[in-house]
Amino acid sequence: MDEAELIRYAKDGDLEAFNRLVLAYQDMAFNLAYRMLSEAAAAEDVTQEAFLSAYRKLHTFRGGSFRAWLLRIVTNASYDELRRKGRRPTTALTPTDDEGEEVETPAWLADSSENPEHIAERVELVEAIQRCLQRLTPDFRAVVVMVDIQGLEYAEVAAAIRKPLGTVKSRLARARANMQDCLRGFKELLPSEFRLKSESV
Predict the structure, then answer these.
(1) Which of 25, 33, 81, 111 is exposed most, by the fewest CB atoms within 10 A?
(2) Residue 123, SS3?
(3) Mapping DSSP to helix (H, G, I), strand (E, B) and coil, where does residue 96 land?
(4) Around Cβ 185, how many Cβ atoms within 10 Å?
(5) Which candidate, 52, 54, 43, places its Cα nearest to that of 78?
(6) Within a 13 Å sphere around the CA of 11, how many CA atoms are in the beta-carbon half?
(7) Which helix (H) or strand (E) holds 82?
(8) How does 5-35 read in b/e, with b if 16+ C-beta sit within 10 Å?
């Protein structure tokens, strides 16, 4: 059953069809919320609320990119959470396990071909990127996450944030410039192919 059929069945009240849509997009939705909020627990809550909202609003989906439609709901829910807190997230970026204990090397970063030093450097780089993301305004953060991290096309991002294509490109250019400026402070963590020649160590 393709996505269009799943959507059609889900609109008719087929919960199993909607659950299959959830499974297809839950990782992308969570990753967007996490990059926006930088808190796993908050991202989980926002993702769950976004899917509940999507189910309630499914009758309003009129075609086009379902992914963009869903990510708009996730983005708006993330904005609402940021406004509710009234501040940027300050929770530590180090991952934790189910008991709240710090995970020094998350499983998703593990690679048997890398030595511990390289793994540690990659963990630090991931944290540096997330810190720089958090310095962006939510509007800039949303577009850079969707385009540069999740690989969405500009048109899908424009649909997701309900802004013209030119706005997406402008925000992305400024967000990338800001990220580049921020990451210069962590240049020792960047692989050599990403450094400017003048910054090579």
Answers:
(1) 111
(2) helix
(3) strand
(4) 11
(5) 43
(6) 13
(7) helix 66-85
(8) ebbebbeeeeeebbebbbeebbebbbbbbbb
Contact 33, 46 (CB under 8 A): yes
The band of 99, judged by pLDDT with boundaries at 50, 70 and 90, is low
Average of per-residue pLDDT across 49-77: 93
Q: Average pLDDT for residues 88-108, to the nearest whole number?
A: 53
Q: Which amino acid is at 24?
A: A
Q: What is the mean pLDDT of the chain?
A: 82
Output the pLDDT for position 66.
93
DSSP 8-state secondary structure symbol assigned to residue 148:
I
Nearest C-alpha neighbor of 137 from the set 98, 178, 106, 186: 178
The domain ranges of the chain are 1-89, 92-201
CB 47 within 8 A of CB 27: no
- For residues 44 and 34, is the Cβ–Cβ distance under 8 A? no
- Greater model confidence, 186 or 26: 26
| Total-model pTM | 0.70
Q: What is the CATH number of domain 1-89?
A: 1.10.1740.10
Backbone φ, ψ for residue 190 (5° rounding): -80, 135
Domain spanning 92-201, CATH architecture:
Orthogonal Bundle (1.10)
